[in-house]
Amino acid sequence: MATLxxxxxxxxSSSFLSTHPQSDDRVEYLEQxxxxxxxxxxxxxxxxKHREIQEKLNx
Length: 59
What we know:
By secondary structure, the chain is mainly alpha-helical.
């Protein structure tokens, strides 16, 4: 999300009529989730569970 925002050049359009939150709003939301829940921002939490589900779907 931060990369997308950088590519946009920091230009911000109105989020009022948008169907999705602005990139910087998304980054702020994710930062709050990480801090509030004590997540490790450098870990791949949930990857193993996702991999198990994918394997079941592909069987």
